[in-house]
Each structure stands twice: as structure tokens, then as C-alpha cells.
User: Fold this.
Amino acid sequence: MRPQVVVVGASLAGLRAAEQLRAQGYAGDLTIVGAEKHKPYNRPPLSKEALSGHGPDVTVEALSASLAFRPKSSIADVRWQLGSPAVSSDLAEGLLSLANGQVLAFDALVVATGLRPRRLLGDTPTRGRHVVRTVDDAVSLRAALVPAVRAVVVGGGFIGCEVASTLTSLGARVTVVEPLPVPMLRGVGAELGAALRAHHEHTGLQVITGQGVSRLIGATEDAEQVAAVVLDDGTELAADLVIESIGSHPNTEWLQGNGLDLTDGVLCDNQLRVEGRAEIVAAGDIARFPNPRFDDIARRVEHWNMPGETAKRAAVTLADHLSGHATTTDPFTPLPAFWSDQFGLRLQSFGSPGLADTAVVEHGALDDLDGGLVMAYLRKDRLVGAVLVNVPASEYRRYRDAVAPLPLAV
Amino acid sequence: MKVRVDMTMCEDHGQCAIAAPDVFRMNDESKLEYDPNPDDSLLAEVEEAADVCPAQAIFIED
Ligand SMILES: Cc1cc2nc3c(=O)[nH]c(=O)nc-3n(C[C@H](O)[C@H](O)[C@H](O)COP(=O)(O)OP(=O)(O)OC[C@H]3O[C@@H](n4cnc5c(N)ncnc54)[C@H](O)[C@@H]3O)c2cc1C
Ligand code: SF4
Assistant:
């Protein structure tokens, strides 16, 4: 019988894993299971030009088509099982159950189910509350953007700040509420976070830090329609729209009951093998794996370049297993890379600034971000990250090569 | 092979120039320049560049 590989998650990581399995010579059956009804599409534009570049009547079909990836011809024969999520699995038996009742048998499995947004507590009010992860989310947010709408963005991470920027450009009056002392603290550190805040406030954004949202209030005439958010200190902010960007939750429920370590994603070894299972690999935002470029602690990385990098290595690992080859032992040491567009600034990050104990300005000035800034992030004097703000792309390679270089000096 | 970048989609991320420096480069104005007819021996590099382009603006036509 032809071997069966099932890929769960039909987004960037799942797509690249399927393509890379073929590139590694895997010629058996391939099925890609996806909860969304769309073929894989590119998510980063959802908080940026996909919102600003379309009118309020853009449809889900038009948006998903315009953001669709172009799958390689090597996977033209893959079976797409879209629109019904995997709900449970029996890894010992090699069985996967979908919400529509189908049961798929597999010899090997790729876990690529990514993340979903965390939500604020409280089921009501129900209307006027948005998240941005899928094309459906973006279409529903775009439709709600009427001129001068009052929007409160809860959570000042990258996605929150990008949405705030896009909404501002579309004429909304936006407030960002961030519980930590500065926006994007984990991604860029305190100094640059404060500088970005000042830059954004200068363009008219209101930023409230050090406070979370304790609850939402519905309108007096319609309790289901959001009317205000209440901050931890009791302050009420009027809001026609609330965008919840308070972080994400890995989609691992369908793997429960198999004895896996599912605390914060799926624990993998350095070759993306799900711990303890030779026939199961993970890729993308959901994979928690150690990266010896930095240390031996397993972490998830929510950057766009990681689905591609992890899928490639996961495919090698799985193809070796399926063909009975000895598995690669080359350490997997991807360099995380991230970009963000907000309030006229292009941010480009290399490495893991969040691991640093010290941040220093390498070039430019924190009070003139438009003029170009390079921030260097050090851990015990080793350069572990760099964030470039409005730096010409012709300079990127130089900084990228300087961050956490290999081989490791042990 | 033939390579085409849809310049209406390109957002000057420069990731292609990191992945395939023999084919793509960012010029002094940080705009993309590329070789539309690279040697077939560079296919793997060019495919990598097409994969890592955040704007998915690179088309390989063989
Ligand atoms: C709005 C937004 C903006 C972003 N901007 C940037 C940026 O500027 N720069 C950057 O570097 N990164 C950015 N990112 C991050 C980047 O898009 C992600 O890292 C990337 O999408 C991760 O891909 P993935 O395939 O691992 O996971 P996902 O894209 O989350 O895909 C997982 C897929 O699995 C499906 N799924 C979930 N559960 C199941 C199930 N049980 N059964 C079947 N299918 C299931 C989901 O529906 C989804 O389609 C952004 C992300 C978002 C949401
Ligand atoms: S990576 Fe893509 S967007 Fe960036 S310069 Fe190259 S073609 Fe343009």
C-alpha cells in the first residue's frame, strides 16, 4: 500500500511541509487537512494592506484569492480536506478524526495547526468585537470601519500596533491599551518600545500602558453591542469597536490524550520530531523546539520565516524516517526574522531580541526613528538580535550576518 | 530559467537578495534589481528566494 502522510493545518507551514516532502523524494499519498475553507494564504497583509487596500464591501472569496499562495506543481496531486478541523487523534493507531465525522488513517503526520487569538474574558457583548487572524476576521473588521469610528485595540504587540496604524490611516480614532509598560516590549525591548510609542503618539495615536481591560460594557439600548471598555483602574473608554490582540493560543486540542507535552505548542526535538514519536513532526507557529544558535530551551517562534524553515527541516526528518535512512543529526539553527509596518515605519528584526539582557543604539537616534535606527540586543555580550527601523534593505544582509553567528563558539 | 518579479507586489523587503544574492540585489536606493534569465544551476537559490518573499512577488517560469 502507498504510504499516507497527513498534514494537519492548511496554512504556510502545512503547505511548505507538503512541498518539501515532495522535494525530499516522498512519492506517497499526501492529504492536507484545514479548518478554514480556504487554501493557504498569506496572513501578514491582514493587519496591513489587506485592510487598507480594500473597500468595506470586500468579500472573503476576493480577499483569500488575492492573498493565496501559489502551491508548487510538485503537490498538484495532494488531497485537500478543507473546511472541517481535526478534532481528535489516536497516534498509536494512526487515526485522525475530523469534525465532519471522517476518519483518516496515516502512516506519518505533520502538525501545522498554528495559533488562534486569545480572547478577552466575557461572552457579552458579542458585537463590535474583533480579532485578526483569518481572512474572515479581516473582512468583518473592514466592513465595520466607518469614518471616525472609535476603536480600542487591546494589546499593543506587533499585530495590535499594525492594526492601530491601519485603522488610523482609514480615519478611525484609535486607542491602544497595553498592560506592560511599553508596546511591543517582548519584541523590541523597553528603549525602542518607548521610542515607537512616542513616534506613534506624535501621529495622533492614543496609547495607554500599564493597564489591562477588566471588562467590556454593552450599549444601553442594545446590550450585545459593545459601547465601552473598562480599564483595570476603572476608567471607561468609549468604543464602537474593540480589537482583541492579546496574544495567541496554540491549536493543540486535537492532539490531547496521546501523552504529548502540549504546554505552549507541541514539544519537539531539534529535528522537529514531536518528542517520543518518529513518525510525527511539527512546523510553524505551533512547534516548540530548541535552537542551539541561542541555547537548549525549547521555544515557539511566531515569525513568518519560521514556517518555511521548520517545514523544510521537518520534511527532511520525516522523509528520512519513511525511507528508512539514517536521520540527519546536523543541528537545526534557523535565524528568526520578522518585519512589521506601522505608522510609516518599516521594522526588520533578525535573531531573538527578547533573549537579550542589554539593548544599545548601534546607529541613529531613538528620537528620530524616521531617520533610520539600528538597535543591537546583547545577551552576556553576545549579539543575539538586531532591530532595524527604516533602514534601507540593502543594509539588511550585513546586520543579519552579524547576529548570533555560526558556528557556535563553545 | 526565467524569473519575473511583479513590481506592483514587491515591497522591497530584500529577503530575496539574502536568499539568492547571485540573482537579486537591493541597489543603493534600496530598490530591487534582478537577473531575469539566471543560469539553471541557480534554480534552488531562486526557489528559496520565491518562498521567502513576504509579498510572494517572485515568479519562476521555466
Ligand atoms: C494579522 C497577522 C499579521 C502578521 N504579520 C506578520 C509580519 O508582519 N511579519 C512576520 O514575520 N509575521 C507576521 N505574522 C505571523 C505569521 O503570519 C505566522 O507566523 C504564520 O502565519 C504562521 O504560519 P503557520 O502555518 O504556522 O500557522 P497558521 O498560519 O496559524 O496556520 C494554521 C492553520 O491551521 C488551521 N487549523 C487550526 N486548527 C486546526 C485543526 N484542528 N484541524 C485542521 N486545521 C486546523 C488554521 O485554521 C490555520 O489555517 C502575522 C500574523 C497575523 C495573524
Ligand atoms: S523579497 Fe519580495 S518583496 Fe522583498 S525585494 Fe524581494 S521580491 Fe521584493
